[in-house]
Amino acid sequence: xxxxxxxxxxxxxxxxxxxxxxxxxxxxxxxxxxxxxxxxxxxxxxxxxxxxxxxxxxxxxxxxxxxxxxxxxxxxxxxxxxxxxxxxxxxxxxxxxxxxxxxxxxxxxxxxxxxxxxxxxxxxxxxxxxxxxxxxxxxxxxxxxxxxxxxxxxxxxxxxxxxxxxxxxxxxxxxxxxxxxxxxxxxxxxxxxxxxxxxxxxxxxxxxxxxxxxxxxxxxxxxxxxxxxxxxxxxxxxxxxxxxxxxxxxxxxxxxxxxxxxxxxxxxxxxxxxxxxxxxxxxxxxxxxxxxxxxxxxxxxxxxxxxxxxxxxxxxxxxxxxxxxxxxxxxxxxxxxxxxxxxxxxxxxxxxxxxxxxxxxxxxxxxxxxxxxxxxxxxxxxxxxxxxxxxxxxxxxxxxxxxxxxxxxxxxxxxxxxxxxxxxxxxxxxxxxxxxxxxxxxxxxxxxxxxxxxxxxxxxxxxxxxxxxxxxxxxxxxxxxxxxxxxxxxxxxxxxxxxxxxxxxxxxxxxxxxxxxxxxxxxxxxxxxxxxxxxxxxxxxxxxxxxxxxxxxxxxxxxxxxxxxxxxxxxxxxxxxxxxxxxxxxxxxxxxxxxxxxxxxxxxxxxxxxxxxxxxxxxxxxxxxxxxxxxxxxxxxxxxxxxxxxxxxxxxxxxxxxxxxxxxxxxxxxxxxxxxxxxxxxxxxxxxxxxxxxxxxxxxxxxxxxxxxxxxxxxxxxxxxxxxxxxxxxxxxxxxxxxxxxxxxxxxxxxxxxxxxxxxxxxxxxxxxxxxxxxxxxxxxxxxxxxxxxxxxxxxxxxxxxxxxxxxxxxxxxxxxxxxxxxxxxxxxxxxxxxxxxxxxxxxxxxxxxxxxxxxxxxxxxxxxxxxxxxxxxxxx
Length: 877
Fold this sequence. Notes:
- The chain is α+β, with helices and mostly antiparallel strands.
- 50% of the residues lie in helices and 17% in strands.
- The strands form 4 sheets. Strands 10, 11, 14, 15, 16, 17, 18, 19 and 20 form a 9-stranded mixed beta sheet that branches.
- A hairpin with a 2-residue loop joins strand 12 (385-389) and strand 13.
- Helix 24 runs parallel beside helix 27 and helix 27 runs antiparallel to helix 28 (775-802).
């Protein structure tokens, strides 16, 4: 219902056709049939079958499946079975990882049922919150969860914590008076909202919205409407696979046509046997070109990254999202609970004597009488409770009063006496007073808003424990301190007392001013350093909060996010084009609602930014789902976790920056593997292609090519997945959103390595008799070419790795994979297995010649690597 906060309680009761006696059961049944249950249907978990099918939906997988089909048509069953086994293994690894992540999220979900105290037929009943209907009268008390949206009709010191929706950690004092004008949700102080928490006091509300008609329900609908975004890795691999498929198809067709043309020129009869022979050549080329091990390498790299992230308390819900963190250049972070501790904390104490910094408090014995009295009044004028829960010290009550108990404990102050009576806080007086009896006598202790309490004071507490008249001079000093704290966006409480008698009527006049306590929801201790790391990595942190502009600006200055601040109202006045320009220069957004967050994320994405969005509340969920990468904190709501790609289990912003580093490292390792596989495949492709063009025999059979692709370069490519990361990985910009999976430098290096290796290999093959017709010489020449390719691949492992500036002996798995590949090559050449592969044993002279060829190739590699390092050094110097 729109505008219900702007009309009186009597009018809203009349509009909903209800009264403070509640609805009758007959009317409840009628309305339940009309409005349904007070329930929000959550998205069902992704089925295991859908997760499994998703593993086989990339273009490279389609290429390999086509290779399997083509091999079966040509009755090359061994090739088909090997490729199919690799595909199945790859699919199962990804399936198990994503299924486990989804099950872990299900385990995180707290299956709680909200109950409500409702008045029906003038009787108080305790019912399941799902049974509420519009017009129900609900009673709210401290500790309750609000079961649905409602308009307050009666309150007694009611304070509600609404950070789940607004992002503000400070509890909101509630009223029943109408509020005129268009107000944001955070300013509708006569309303309560589903899923918020009652921290103190009591209230009665009439239910105005249930289920999808609540603020939480509207947000859930926004989440459902948000479209799924492909990750940058998915986009790059898909584009790469399509281009690779076109190139392979073109080359295979060209070779097939050249073979047919040469046969016609030579007068050879074109029968079925000739076409089958040509098809074998073409499939050999296809096998040589397709990076068979790539899907498995990518899946294993992401899976290993997922395990590393879990060790850093980050749960990955979607495997391909791991790399996306390394590509993001903007992190939009909710303030409350992510950048701050989501806990009000007294940071400053102030008396006429001095200002105390409670972040670095002095020794307890150095506190003066006045300072100890200041914290004692904070304990006596307090209804928060302290207790133990599962071994942990727990405070319950208003966040402000909990903060006062903590500050007293920090000062080493405890109250020894008896509290006799109380004048509760109310919105008009803005004060709370209690009558206490101590060993020193009976006193009235008072706390309240500074401007109101100061008017009730006639004296101030002196350093020598005496009191003196509060003159204009002292009032000016106190006012200056209040303004100074307010300028830092701190919430200030003033404290005073007077002597009293046990039977006195409590009146708040003639008080002795004692001091001030200033509190704030402070930044996390490590967040400033994390933001510096993000900026060094060319990542722009943006604070988005429902809190006030001044508070957001103050927190931003403390953690290193400064500059222009825009409010939600200002965003409403901007069209999309203006907003796109505004988000380029604005790093703090305050007083925003969920719709604003979505617009901010969309504006950044339209400027080609890769956006990560962090948050914990229901209000963050739509933006979490829309962002390129959504990060929910572990203490956040289940709605946020369901919308996110990651869940940060310990709520630490530092771990998010660590995850960015992990994402970049994973991308580097995947890129290394692609470089290795494609460089090797390009060399093999050119070797076969040039031999066909020159009219020579095939240097490598389809089986030899498959062995090289899966084992010889497949094992080192897998070892790259655990390679350590470069030391400068967080001192360079992220990969551009539209950048290809390989940069121009990497493509040039790949082309150089492939062409150089192919020319040297072609020379070795021809020198060993590859151009002659003798079958025995052909087998030896193929063995030479086969062994050369293995040596080439092993050198390639370290050449590519050196281009990423990773130290030589930091990955034992890589050295083990190289040793394994060489060992397997020796087994193939010098055991009876060689008959299966159609190769022969090589002599020592042939091995030495191959070694010399490998050395020549290695020396050639210094040309592009040396040029790149000289160019980098020259540009930086």
